[in-house]
Amino acid sequence: MCGIVGYIGPRDATPIILNGLRRLEYRGYDSAGIAVFQDNAIEVRRDAGKLQNLADLVSRQPLSGAPGIGHTRWATHGAPSARNAHPHLGSTGRVVVVHNGIVENFLELRDELSAEGVIFNSDTDTETIVHLVEHHMAAALDLTEAARRTFQQIRGAHGIVLMSADEPDKIVCARIGNAGGVVLGLGDGENFIASDIPAIIDHSRRVIFLESHQMAVVTRDGIRVETLDGKLIQPQIHPVSWDPVAAEKGEFRHFMQKEIHEQVRALTDTLAGRVDFEKGKIRLPELNLTPEIARRIDKIYITACGTAAYAGMVGKTLIERIARIPVEVVIGSEFRYSDPIIDKNTVVMAISQSGETADTLAAMEEGRRKGAIVWSIVNAIGSQAMRIAAGSISMQTGPEIGVASTKAFTAPLVDQYMLAILLGELRGTLDETTRRQLVKDLRLIPDLVGRTLAREAAVEKVAHALKDIRDCLYLGRGINMPIAYEGALKLKEISYVHAEGYPAGEMKHGPIALIDKDMPVICLAPKDPWHEKMISQIQQAKARGGTVIAVATDGDELVSGMADHVLWIPESPWMLSPVVTVIPLQLLAYHIAAIRGLDVDQPRNLAKSVTVE
Ligand code: AGP
After folding, report:
1. What's the rounded Cα separation, in Å, for the pair 521 and 541?
2. Which pLDDT score, from 0 to 100, does residue 447 have?
3. Confidence bin at 604 (pLDDT 50/70/90)
4. Distance between CA atoms of 346 and 457, rounded to whole angstroms?
5. Known catalytic residue at 461
6. What are phi and psi of 429, to 5 degrees?
7. What per-residue confidence (pLDDT) applies to 246?
């Protein structure tokens, strides 16, 4: 979950690392630190809290030189404090490490090292790594071999970067398991290391993704990739098409707001090259889906976490309705413990923005182990979820920085809609007229989303009316039921308001007891096949004194006659309606949090990529 940056080359590493960390702060933000090679020694600055605290410390106590490494932390072992912030120096002060992951056998290793007289200066598991490296260097190994021995000794999943004042011509790094990526950026006479592309996108557009159990020795002029047991690897170099501007906030106050507005562009790119409007056909070549595979699939598990799982719930309705394949959505953290019934005709499809979520990757591994066809829908280029899948659909959203996922929610809705059409065509469950109509409807999506976004000011007004709420219920039915879950999640994660998403029809079985004048009820009531049912739900909430905020289709006087506030959306084909109904809920959560003055992009206790179980 933490963010890592490294630089080796002729320039001063400090600004490069601080800027890179700024781009990675979404991964963890409880403390940060930097180490650079300066005057033949390693200088370290660390501080608790946001990256700005570190930047302020560096201005008071400047440091400059290269190579350098930096880190922004999401605490696992040891409280968030300057003492536990990375980088961690060894006892000699000549070796330093930054780390993402958990050293599972750290207690055992710490006892062994303590018995040798090593003094620990932090409460972290990470510190064992640097002491082990020093231990091996003391036995006459160079940094690379000492690091290799250490990587073989530690258990768990890791991204690790090390440097030594005795060998300042190199940085050594490794990826072990799924603790988040290690990306190597190639430059001219300089090279870069990061846990994610945005950190180095200003400097390098050619990257290497380390695979699990690979290490790299990075110098100014080259990168040598090896397996942990020393086999040389010829790594693939990937071009990066992301625009560096995409990783900046631009004129927006927060990344979340910018990313909400980017959905028109993201969805246009989602369709580009994949939809043949003339023939009414869908092309998803990266999925490697043949007619033979499509016909033999008899079950699909969609596995994902949080927002991505809610996207999967919409996908279930789409795939079942259009392709007539039974779909079960299982959240990533439960999948491998549920002993899923899988054979070669089962698809396990993961959805993930980061492609690094540990629970989602573990679910994919479980699918692979049991012989399933494993697919993924992923945003982060080159991520593990993309690489371990037999077929993948790449979200075309560009980097998502705000911790609250927005554009990486709507893109997979459209991806799954397209997948359902393709499966339906290949399996013969779709007649040509319906297929053509479904494909034609896709053309409407960017405009519908754009028109909904244009109503932001009206949503902001409602946000002002709701700014002091303490609880909130979100109700939806059918294809828009997961949008109730997603709306509630958005509100709770950035506004810290207690919110529940509920299938509207379940209210009468208990939760209706909660409704009174202090409980706003947000009802998703677009003109879809569940519209009438939602009307009676709104009546029930009103009858109990609840304040109703309805998401309704333009001109729906029935709803506007009953609701206290209406968030209007343009009329949309029902199977695509969740792409539109979620927009006012994203904006509502955003504005409530912004009005409350909260840290929208970096809400407390959260990290963007959850790479621990
Ligand atoms: C979304 O707003 C959340 N912050 C979170 O639920 C997220 O969707 C989840 O952690 C899954 O992440 P992924 O898409 O990167 O796998």
Report:
1. 7
2. 94
3. confident
4. 46
5. no
6. -95, 0
7. 65
Confidence check: pLDDT of 243 > 80 = no
pLDDT of residue 178: 76
Three-class SS state of 158: strand
- Tell me if residue 608 is catalytic: yes
| H-only helix segments in 248-373 | 255-261, 263-271, 291-296, 306-323, 332-335, 358-369
pLDDT tens for each residue of 153-212: 999 889 999 999 999 999 999 999 877 789 999 999 999 999 988 899 899 999 999 988
Place of tokens 């258990």: 155
Helix (H) or strand (E) segment spanning residue 424: helix 407-427
Residues ≥6 apart with Cβ < 8 Å to 335: 301, 303, 359, 362, 363, 366
Average per-residue pLDDT for the chain: 93
Supply 106's token pair.
């750290």
- Extract the runs of DSSP E, i.e. beta strands, from 61-209: 68-73, 88-89, 95-101, 158-164, 171-176, 183-186, 191-194, 206-209
Ligand 1 pocket: which of 378, 397, 585, 610 to mutate (most atoms within 8 A of CB): 610
Confidence tier at 608 by pLDDT (50, 70, 90): confident
**Phi, psi (deg, nearest 5) at residue 569:** -130, 150
Amino acid at 105: N
Spell out a b/e string for 448-465, using b for 16 or more CB atoms within 10 Å of the CB, else e.
bbbbbbebbeebbebbee
Residue 156 CA: distances (Å) to CA of 125, 213, 234, 276 = 11, 11, 26, 46
Residue nearest to atom 8 of ligand 1 (CA): 307
Q: What percent of the chain has pLDDT over 70?
A: 98
* Residue ranges lining ligand 1, Cβ < 6 Å: 305-308, 352-354, 357, 360, 403-405, 493, 609-610
Closest CA to 205 of 163, 167, 171, 239: 239
Helix (H, G, I), strand (E, B) or coil at 341: coil
Q: How far apart are CA 174 and CA 161, in angstroms?
A: 7
3-state helix, strand, coil in the chain (%, to 5): 40, 25, 35
Rounded to whole angstroms, how far apart are CA atoms 69 and 582? 40
DSSP result, 434-487: HHHHHHHHHTTHHHHHHHHHTTHHHHHHHHHHHTT-SEEEEEE-GGGHHHHHHH
Distance CA 451, CA 237 (A): 40
d(CA 331, CA 324): 22
Q: Residue 1: its pLDDT value, please?
A: 66
CA–CA gap between residue 196 and residue 568 (Å, rounded): 38
pLDDT (tens digit, 9 = 90+) per residue, 77-90?
Answer: 677 788 889 999 99
pLDDT computed for residue 398 by the predictor: 87
For tokens 């369709």, name the residue.
271
Query: Distance, CA 306 to ligand 1 centroid (Å)?
Result: 5
Supply angle C-alpha 340, 344, 347, rounded to 5: 60
